[in-house]
Amino acid sequence: MAVNSEAVQENFQNAWGKRLQALKNIPPVLRIIWDSSPAVVGAELALRAVVAVVPLGLLAVTRLIIDAVVSHVSRGNVLRHDFWWLVAAEFGLAAFATILNRIVDFCDTLLADKFTRHISIRIMEHASRLDLFCYEDPSFQDKLERARVQATDRLGMIRQMGLLVQQVITTATLAASILFFSPWLLLLLILCVVPAFLGESHFAFLGYALAFRLTPVKRQIDYLRFLGASKDSAKELKLFGLNKYLTDRFTELSDDVYHENVALAKRRLGATAVLSLVTTMGYYGAYVYVIFETVSGTMTVGTLTFLTGAIAGASSNLQMIFSTFSSIADQSLFLTDLLEFFALQPLVTSKPNALRAPRPIQQGIEFRDVSFSYPGSTRLVLKSLNLRVMPGERIALIGENGEGKTTIVKLITRLYDPTAGSVHVDGIDLREYDLEDYSSQIAVIFQDFMRYDMTAWENIAMGQISERKNLARIELAAKKSLAESVIGKLPLGYDQMLGRRFETGVDLSGGEWQRVALARAYLRDAQLLVLDEPTAALDARSEHEVFERFAELTQGKMALLISHRFSTVKMADRIVVLEKGQIAEEGRHEQLMARGGRYAAMFEMQASSYR
Fold first, then answer.
1. Residue-by-residue DSSP string for 235-267
2. Which domains are assigned to the chain?
3. Alpha carbon of 368 to those of 375, 507, 607: distances in Å?
4. Which of 12, 333, 494, 548 could form a disulfide with 457 if both were Cys (CB 3.0 to 4.6 A apart)?
5. What's the whole-model pTM score?
6. pLDDT of 34-49, one tens digit each?
């Protein structure tokens, strides 16, 4: 039993420790909010400061009005000469506060939009700088998903920060007036609010911990929701009868999440209900004391009205301050992933004063004893690999899946850096070159190329975005990749929206999409052309047409081609066969066939299926 008590105490201390540590998230978030729109933030804070002192002004004027009325009715005294001016002043203050609150709401709306835009741009910009291996890590995917959600789900926190400033000022002015009459009343109010604050804060932290733990499950739920209503999966769902399985799986996971949320909500309801009674008792204790002082003749009715209003306002605002601060502090826990995401820094970067990529590359690109294993894995995909691509040379990489073909592409394009050894361009380590400038000299089309739900010309322009307005070059690239015939059939031609995401979109076949993707590579005026399974979705005739132009399109360029079709690789200047992360053999098609080695065996195996 003692061990359990110690465990509970330790968990409680850890929870509060994490909560206090999370407060360090608030300053950087405040900076982000300020950067999103300094003018709006400054205007809102100024307006809230003015609104905050209005309640005290209203109570002060009300006190004078009531005392004047009581004196006139009970004693027959003449109304004070400025009585109706006081009534007008009360109305004016109330109207003024109403208008200011509407302006504050307007500022809140503006700031929410500006913050969403600002934080979304920052996430997109930062994500684009991170290393590729981050996106291949499931834990990073969870972090990124939470960061995206937090960017918009924390909009309420922005308003709460402004509201907290207003509440603090209002409470300070009301507390000062209560303190003037009785310090004990103010102390009583504060002591009675603290338990409710601690309870709310504790359960808010438990809510964060639960949300954090359930993130992977929620990603599964979102994926199942996508599978259950997606055009990509619709055919197999119908033919394989998968709908019930996916629906049952979705129901099971979502029920688990629901039950855990309800269990926590029940605990929170019971605890906070009891603690709120303590706060209510404190308020009414102070209220009874003021009534007693008024009945005994110590205070006037106006003072009674003033103090009861001040006590009610101070009690309410104290609760709101603790609640708002608790909410801000606990929401700052949710911002941990957002700030950790921004704290991530890429490992593959350009050095200060990095060199520009050579134009043209004269000595080629060389792998020197390159070994590579992916982060988190000890398996070497490449082992002491030595490979050189000469200017103007067309090289085909072949081998079984997992032998390192695409890894070579990732290293030569510097999406990764070698685990050991180095890649050199014109005899200089690739890491010495400016990464962005070097990338501008490479055109790559991967097998899993992007299908942008944009217009046809935008899809092609993605290959060289600076040429997006040069329709002549875009049309030429489409002609080279044979996408011209595809686009010619579209109702709106190059202005046709592709994909089914938007209402006017038209979807293409796999082969048609691949021609559009190839056009991106041809639009880019690059020294190195990398095609990773570029014709995988094309039929034999289309493939033949594409590669009839291959020699022309790669004239004067280095070309790296990955393909499982040996009819495609035959036209390469050199064929490199990879096996177990090393070069098993290399040479021209005729040379490799004459040797009767690994290449010849693979070629004959594939050729036999066509006989």
1. HHHHHHT-HHHHHHHHHHHHHHHHHHHHHHHHH
2. 25-343 (1.20.1560.10), 361-441+532-611 (3.40.50.300), 451-525 (no CATH)
3. 21, 44, 34
4. 494
5. 0.65
6. 888 899 989 989 999 9
